[in-house]
Amino acid sequence: MSSAVVPDHPWLLPGSLAPTSRAIRRTPRDWVVDALAFLLAIGWVVLAFTDSVRPDPQFALNTGPSWLNEVDLVLGATAAAALWLRRRWPVGLAVATAPLVLFSVTASVALLIIVFTVLVHRPLPVAAALVGWHLLSSPLYVMLRPDPVLPFWATTVWTLLFIGAVVAWALFVRARRQLVLSLRDRADRAEAEQQLRVDQARQLERTRIAREMHDVLAHRISLLSLHAGALEFRPDAPPAEVAKAAGVIRASAHAALQDLREVIGVLRAEPAAGGAPERPQPTLGDVPALVAESRAAGVRVSVLDEVVDATAVPAAVGRSAYRIVQEGLTNARKHAPGAVVTVRLAGGPEAGLAVEIRNRWPVGGPGSPIPGTGTGLVGVAERVTLAGGRLEHGRDADGDFRLAAWLPWPAS
Questions:
Q1: Membrane-crossing residues (predicted)?
Q2: Mean pLDDT over residues 46-64, rounded?
Q3: Of 124, 181, 237, 246, which residue is most buried, by most CB within 10 angstroms?
Q4: Does residue 356 fall inside a structural domain?
Q5: How far is the first Cα of the chain from the last one, in angstroms, to the nearest whole number?
């Protein structure tokens, strides 16, 4: 389980998460709250001391020897001033002022504020121990400082009610702050997860584009290399053939640059709603044009089409089949120039779509071998696996190189 998100305001940390090793910077709201707490505590000190020294003890809050009232005045003022330290050392302040619970009248408000602080900002066991000390000390306090009007039990009940009210209020504030922290943490986590999903989707999309770029550009550039190799091999070819080959080279180069420009534009641009639609992706119906393009480049390609209903092939399946044929033709031009390439398409709904590209083992040809990235078959294998199909490639018993794939074709 990951750690909780630390909020900007360190005083809002619940329980033991509150920082104690560094100074806490008060916000303007903290200064206002601390000032009000101090004024409330010091105001009670003045009021309690004034009532304790009245000539008529019947109207005094508590009775006791005169010297105790004077000492209580000093202790109450000290406890009120110490409230400015409650944010940094709440537990230490509670321990230091614990003896005052037994006899001090003037420090009562300051002591309740300290209890409130510990309950809100420190672990519950520590707060429970402090509250227990106050509850157990209440009867002793009433015995040492009896009320001149109320009986013992009534004074004890009132004291316990005040402590209970402070405890209930503090627990409410504690629960509310922890709820706010939890909601803030959830919001931060949700935002981070949403950003992660966006980044993953963007990365997957760019990976898909890169794969498409490899398939398209490898096909185009292999055509360029094939025609350039033919011109190099036959420098004395008739001008018409040279012009035709140069035209094919120019057209292939222009198409490759156009594809590259579009891909780079997509990779650089951030996804935005309402943008220009993507180019239509090739399907099984575009395989004849792909074969014709290879034939125009001088590759001997034979096609055996045994598909039951080519128009009913799902777009995703047809696109995968197109890319497999494209990769097979590209590899044949690279590694087996001059060899006859056989493309076979077969299948139907429920039976699946079978794609097979076969050519003789490399027999050599004009020009130098066309370099490649070596990841074409890896990309085809990944595409087939994602589609739920199977892929086989390698040399068969007849000595031919065979690239065969089966793609699922669900019945409509």
A1: 31-49, 93-119, 150-172
A2: 62
A3: 181
A4: yes
A5: 46
